[in-house]
Design brief:
mainly beta; Immunoglobulin-like; 6-stranded mixed sheet; 3% helix
Length: 909
């Protein structure tokens, strides 16, 4: 109850324009809330306050206003009243009372509505608390400004690296870039460079402050690579908003030479084996800068180095003998005649001193078979070789060592077996007497698991036997092992026949999805990967039919299906034919295990017969599906009735001819060349007549043709001038509907139907405010609502008459809806409490008809208006002897305000 009374106090205060809503700061009296913060920033008591971007403040995208109050005075849970206003409109404060809260000495409100927190507007706010005893003074006034937009992108300029495709500068040469904001409130800039070095972004996001508020900023940066480079820049304002993105592109001049060597390339394991450690190879240098006099080069930091003079074209060729094996990098820079040294170009290359491998290289191998390789050294003093397997997941096997002969060569035999079945390659290294290892040589392995090829005959029906035959590429298999349905108890092991194959037999004990897996082994115990075959075993009925074959087509006439049981102990069949009235039909099984089913199709198309059998104990077999096609009979069309049909809706026509069925298609062609699809509603038993409905709304008047298509695969048969389409008569309004009654809130209006030709038998209504229909206002009368205030009301009446399309007429609109009569006090307000100086009296609202939604209070002493506007008044000694009255103004949306004054009371000393 306290909350509702306080809301009325707030409404009264806001309505009268409380003091302190201007732009000058207002300081809180003793007892008002303190500790004020705006979006967690201390209260700014002068305009414009902090600049805030709600989208960047929190997940709620809201400005949070907070304060504290004295719980010893106001209790733990008073109510809070926040006033927030646009400083340009101090007389229009916002009401946030529904979102405000006060508890345990803290007040807060979250301003979440963007429509009431507008971009670019400076707002002021203050807060007070209230309980049953009264209200506190207002707090200080705090200010803040909403800034939701970062603005347009900043400009970027650079004399060192201007925008465009023309290259400038070079790698390592610093350049300056200046950022210029398009906004006057920029405080910093965020930027990042993107080039082709490393993973791309060379700087990540960097921030530089503006030289002043809204001012520029200048940064320096050294390119790491040549070619196209981009710079992304955002301006950041004082509210933390980011501007639109500036995307600045420029090009860095390439001054590194190009380097190439056909002898030493960056291809591990695939290099030219003529080249090795200590073998000179040619490296070609080509300068990208004019007036190049020489090149300086070195391999890594500890390798050979040197220089070479450039020819007139800025090129040079150098013979370099690497001093070590493996991956390494040659660095080359161009030096011009003025002595300038330009950035280095790096050229990674590979020196391959791995062994030479010949023999079964690049050949596939079947499990159980071997590959033979001859290993020859490409390093000195080789005494052995080391090899190991590498699997598809990059895991490696243990390393194996084989000795080399006196000439440093060795032969390696590699056998595919079950220990290395995941191998994709073999690495081989040569080792010297001192233990020095060469680079590895990669030998690709293409392994076949020799999975047996498995075929099957028979075993499709439960109780029958499946014969399984297996064949493998495994050399000299000695035996095969087969398992049915992964059940180890069914395992059979048979020796391989002379031709390397094996044959198994399994009896199918039940209907289910079935599989047989097979592996083969040789005398060494090497086994193949698993081969398999799978199929469905059924005990469902076998279905045959000469009238409705699965190949070819049946016709729309009686025919039969023969069902034969394949389930032990079956006593009946249960079958259904999709799309027909045959559903779960039961048929007894004769002594020969069969049943004959008779059926007459009613339409053409594709059908499925699915059937099961069932034992006396209720056990059902698996289901058999039998698919077949019914061919449509030839169609003739001789006449259509009725001979004339009206437009304006769905009409029924009857077509006479022959060969009709419910799977036909019907089309109607009006005289304007359009067409409409018909819907078949019935076909006679002799198939000589067909009834269909067709929507002729908007159809052209005149002669119409009808076509019937047997099905989707045959051409339609057409009858021209089959019937005539005539225009449907219309309902016409003679006198428009009219509205009677006073267009004021709370009054009742009544609509007449108007007059019609011919007379409409039924009417419906729809009231509207302006051009908007009023929801639920569909009766002949309407009670005017507060939401209609100022709007013109009208009513639309829709008449219906059998044989005619519905018609609607709209009344003339009323004058704008006026306010309703002011509520009247049926019981006057009354002053309660002891009327004595120092005491507090209260006012009742009185009783009003109609009831009001809010009230305002005016207290007078001897007729003079007092400043208090609350429902209570504290009597002072100055009021002693005076007559006190209270006038209550009642307010109700859409109605004029009502006023009533209490009887006076005299204040005692």
């Amino acid at each position: 109850m306290h909350r509702r009374v306080y809301s009325l106090i707030v409404a009264s205060t806001l309505g009268c324009g409380a003091a302190g809503l201007g732009t000058a700061p207002v300081f809180a009296a003793d007892g008002g809330p303190t500790g004020l913060t705006t979006a967690n920033q201390a209260c700014a008591t002068s305009s414009p306050g902090p600049y805030l971007s709600p989208d960047r403040l929190n997940d709620a995208r809201a400005v949070l206003l907070r304060g504290t109050y004295d719980t010893s005075v106001w209790g733990a849970n008073p109510t809070a009243d926040f006033q927030v206003w646009d400083t340009a409109h101090p007389d229009q404060p916002q009401d946030w009372s529904d979102r405000a809260g006060a508890s345990d000495g803290k007040v807060l409100v979250q301003l979440e509505d963007p429509a009431r927190q507008l971009d670019g507007v400076t707002y002021a706010w203050k807060v007070r608390v209230a309980n049953a005893s009264g209200t506190s003074p207002w707090s200080d006034t705090c200010y803040y400004t909403i800034d939701r937009s970062g603005g347009t992108e900043p400009a970027v300029s650079s004399d060192d690296y201007p925008s465009g495709d023309k290259p400038n500068g070079e790698i390592g040469v610093a350049g300056s870039f200046t950022f210029i904001s398009a906004s006057d409130d920029t405080v910093s800039y965020q930027y990042s460079f993107w080039d082709n070095a490393g993973s791309g972004s060379s700087t990540g996001n960097q921030t530089v402050p503006a030289s002043r508020l809204g001012g520029p900023a200048t940064i320096t940066w050294k390119p790491r690579t040549a070619g196209d480079t981009s710079l992304t820049v955002y301006a950041i304002d004082r509210a933390g908003n980011y501007s639109e993105r500036q995307y600045y592109t420029f090009s860095v001049r390439e001054t590194r030479p190009s380097v190439f060597s056909a002898a030493y390339q960056n291809s591990a394991g695939f290099g030219d084996l003529k080249y090795n450690v200590g073998v000179p190879g040619q490296f070609d240098f080509s300068s990208t800068v004019a007036d190049t006099s020489s090149f300086a080069w070195h391999i890594d930091q500890d390798g050979p180095s040197g220089s070479a003079d450039a020819d007139a074209d800025g090129k040079a060729s150098v013979m370099i003998a690497p001093t070590k094996a493996g991956h390494q990098t040659l660095y080359v820079r161009a030096i011009t005649r003025d002595g300038a040294q330009h950035p280095e170009q790096d050229y990674p290359f590979y020196v391959d001193n791995g062994p030479l491998v010949t023999g079964d290289v690049y050949q596939s191998v079947v499990r159980g078979s071997s590959l033979r390789f001859h290993l020859a050294p490409r390093t000195s003093d080789v005494t052995s070789y080391i090899y190991w397997n590498v699997a598809g997941d990059s895991s490696e096997s243990a390393k194996t060592t084989i000795p080399a002969g006196a000439d440093g060569t060795a032969d390696l035999t590699w056998t595919a077996d079950n220990t290395n079945e995941r191998t994709i390659g073999v690495q081989v290294q040569a080792r010297s007497a001192e233990g020095t290892l060469s680079e590895p040589r990669w030998l690709t392995m293409n392994l076949s698991g020799a999975s047996p090829l498995v075929t099957r005959t028979g075993g499709d029906v439960a109780g029958t036997t499946a014969t399984i035959k297996a064949r493998t590429l495994l050399v000299n298999p000695t035996e095969y092992e087969a398992v049915l349905n992964n059940d180890a108890t069914t395992k059979q092991v048979v020796p391989a026949a002379a031709d390397g194959t094996a044959t198994f037999q399994f009896t199918m004990t039940k209907a289910q999805y079935t599989s047989v897996t097979v592996i083969a082994r040789n005398a060494a115990g090497v086994h193949t990967d698993q081969g398999s075959t799978s199929w469905s075993v059924t005990d469902g009925p076998a279905i045959t039919s000469t009238d409705f074959p699965t190949r070819g087509s049946g016709h729309i006439k009686p025919g039969t299906f023969t069902l034969k049981s394949q389930q032990t102990g079956a006593t009946k069949f249960i079958y259904s034919i999709d799309g027909t009235d045959r559903y779960n039909v039961e048929a007894p099984i004769a002594s020969d295990g069969t049943a004959t089913v008779t059926w007459t199709p009613t339409t053409s198309g594709y059908f499925n017969l699915h059937a099961t059998s069932k034992t006396a104990s209720g056990v059902r077999s698996s289901e058999t599906y039998y698919s077949f096609y019914i061919e449509a009979d030839p169609v003739t069309v001789t006449s259509v009735s009725p001979s004339t049909v009206q437009t304006g809706g769905v009409r029924t026509i009857t077509i006479t001819g022959s060969g009709f069925n419910t799977g036909n298609y019907v089309y109607v062609y009006p005289s304007d060349g359009s067409y409409a699809n018909g819907t078949i509603t019935g076909v006679s038993a002799d198939r000589l007549t067909l009834t269909a409905t067709v929507d002729l709304t908007g159809a052209a008047a005149g002669p119409a043709s009808v076509a019937v298509q047997p099905d989707g695969y045959h051409s339609a048969v057409r009858l021209d001038n089959a019937f005539t389409i005539v225009t449907q008569p219309t309902l016409n309004v003679v006198t428009k509907p009219a509205i009677t009654g006073v267009a004021a809130v709370g009054s009742q209006l009544k609509a007449s139907t108007g007059t019609w030709n011919p007379t409409g038998t039924t009417f419906t209504y729809q009231w509207a405010a302006g051009s908007t229909p009023i929801r639920g206002a569909t009766g002949a009368t309407y009670r005017v609502q507060a939401a209609d205030l100022g709007k013109k009301l009208s009513v639309s009446v829709t008449a219906t008459e059998p044989g005619y399309p519905a018609a609607t007429a709209k009344s003339t609109a009323t004058s704008p809806v006026a306010k309703g009569a002011a509520p009247k006090a049926t019981v006057l307000p009354k002053i309660t409490g002891k009327a004595k100086a120092g005491k507090t009296v209260k006012a009742t609202t009185g009783t009003w008809n109609p009831s009001a939604s809010s009230y305002r209070y005016e207290w007078r002493a001897n007729g003079k208006l007092l400043s208090t506007t609350s429902a209570s008044l504290k009597l002072t000694t100055a009021m002693a002897g005076k007559k006190i009255t209270v006038t209550v103004t009642s307010a109700k949306p859409g109605y004029n305000s009502g006023r009533a004054t209490s009887k006076p009371v005299t204040v005692q000393k």
